[in-house]
Write a structure and sequence with these properties.
Blueprint (H helix, E strand, L loop, with lengths): L4 E4 L6 E4 L5 H13 L6 E2 L5 H14 L8 E4 L4 H10 L6 E5 L10 H9 L3 E4 L8 E4 L6 E6 L4 H10 L7 E6 L5 H13 L5 E3 L2 E4 L9 E2 L4 H12 L5 E5 L12 H6 L3 E6 L2 E6 L7 E4 L7 H11 L3 E4 L11 H9 L5 E5 L7 E5 L8 E4 L5 H7 L8 E4 L12 H7 L3 E4 L1
Parallel strand pairs: 2-13, 3-12, 4-5, 8-9, 16-17, 20-21
Antiparallel strand pairs: 1-21, 1-22, 5-7, 6-7, 9-11, 10-11, 13-15, 14-15, 17-19, 18-19
Length: 422
């Protein structure tokens, strides 16, 4: 039985040094490339997130030289990235594979990935509802060539195809249809391909990857800017706070480094140091915030929660695809942050024009608030810092943070937060 956790703010301003987890996004892409490379190489500082552990285990299961059941079940749990990357990957392996996950995974559509892979020759059957997991895949020799993929649903569909592209006969010409979401994650994939010797060429919405071999090289995984966003939130909500995010540097590989610019308007100054990135509370907060999250969806929970905590009104766009994350993330955020006394107005429109507005209202900060994580790690970590503004925050499922940041609660305690199972 999962017990809720109660979080109380530290009695004084936060001062601490935080050793963030390594980037889950870089780790998972590196594991995929490692499984496709003909020669071994080392991945240093691999993420210890639940998602990465699942992917590492399943990659070993796919490539290990032993008999397995047919079909071989690959259970991705709640790891959407893992499911999408492996959908493309196992199509290249002999045998039958049953790709599945938890209940939420079975509710997340994958048709926009399955159809392009089928056009490359993949043998994929829906093992349940049409367009949704589980998938029954019979490995076969795929062909290269030209294929179209929707760009407005998930960048992970595109990344999954790009990573298998160089091992396809003739390579791959990928035509991106629609408004591209989470573009920095596609750029991350292309940068990692280049780092492992695979070139790519882009012109007028088409990415071309030639047939070639991955070249082995050892890699050190960077610290995770997505995880850093919750510390930006804590500093924004805590006058006098100073936090050093150890070994976090602005390399340009992670799009979520945009958190630096976003939180400047929410009272957080950043200073690059030799040992990492130093965050400090400035006291300056913009009276109104407006931001398009098309390229940075993982930053949305921390930003929305910070605005709720500070009482800063704003307008958020580029958030439509958040309804297909670990939770229906927009719906969940509106429902839970409404408990703080903040009101929202969500306008759903086609073609990437949906918006969420937040209003500043008087709140009773003396209350203790019970919030539902909706089995979403990013919501749990975004809601916890609100204990800096309210008497206490209780979350129904503290274990969910293991998906991306297993040491989150330990780090909060190290900075003076009091946590107890209730």
């Amino acid at each position: 039985m999962i017990r809720p956790i109660r979080i109380k703010a530290p009695p004084a301003a936060i001062h601490g040094v935080i050793d963030l987890p390594s980037s889950k996004s870089i780790s998972n892409r590196s594991l995929m490339i490692q499984s496709l490379c003909k020669e071994p190489f080392q991945i240093h500082d691999l993420s210890d997130s639940g998602d990465t552990r699942i992917l590492s285990s399943l990659c070993s299961k796919i490539t290990e030289d032993q008999l397995h059941e047919s079909p071989c079940m690959l259970d991705c749990g709640m790891a959407g990235t893992v499911f999408r990357f492996l959908t493309a990957r196992v199509c290249l392996e002999d045998g039958e594979w049953l790709l599945t996950g938890n209940q939420r995974m079975l509710e997340r559509p994958v048709g926009d990935l399955v159809e392009p892979i089928r056009k490359l020759g993949a043998n994929i059957t829906y093992h349940g509802d049409e367009g949704y997991p589980p998938l029954l895949i019979s490995g076969t020799q795929l062909k290269g060539g030209e294929v179209e993929v929707r760009a407005d649903t998930s960048s992970q569909f595109i990344s999954a195809l790009l990573m298998i592209a160089p091992v396809l006969p003739g390579g791959l010409k990928l035509i991106l249809n629609g408004r591209i979401v989470s573009r920095p994650y596609i750029d991350m994939t292309l940068s990692l391909l280049e780092a492992f010797g695979v070139p790519s060429y882009e012109s007028k919405g088409t990415i071309t990857v030639p047939e070639c071999s991955y070249k082995p090289r050892d890699i050190i995984v960077e610290k995770d800017f997505s995880a850093a966003s919750y510390w930006f939130e804590m500093v924004a909500l805590n006058p006098g706070a100073k936090v050093l995010l150890k070994s976090l540097h602005l390399s340009g590989l992670q799009g979520d480094a945009a958190v630096v610019d976003i939180f400047r308007d929410l009272g957080v100054a950043t200073s690059p140091e030799k040992d990492g990135l130093l965050l400090s509370h400035t006291g300056f907060v913009t009276p109104y915030i407006s931001f398009d999250f098309t390229d940075f969806p993982d930053l949305f929970p921390a930003v929305a929660s910070t605005c709720a905590g500070l009482g800063v009104p704003g307008l958020f766009t580029g958030i439509e695809h958040l309804e297909f994350k670990e939770s229906r993330r927009i719906t969940a955020i509106v429902e839970e942050l409404a408990k703080t006394g903040i009101s929202f107005h969500y306008q759903q429109k086609p073609y990437g024009q949906s918006s969420l507005s937040i209003s500043a209202e008087h709140r009773d900060h003396s209350r203790e608030i019970l919030m539902n994580t909706h089995q979403d790690h990013r919501l749990a970590m975004a809601f916890a810092p609100l204990s800096l503004k309210w008497n206490a925050i209780r979350l129904d499922d503290p274990q969910v943070v293991s998906k991306s940041y297993p040491s989150f609660w330990d780090h909060l305690q190290a900075c003076g937060f009091r946590t107890e199972m209730s």
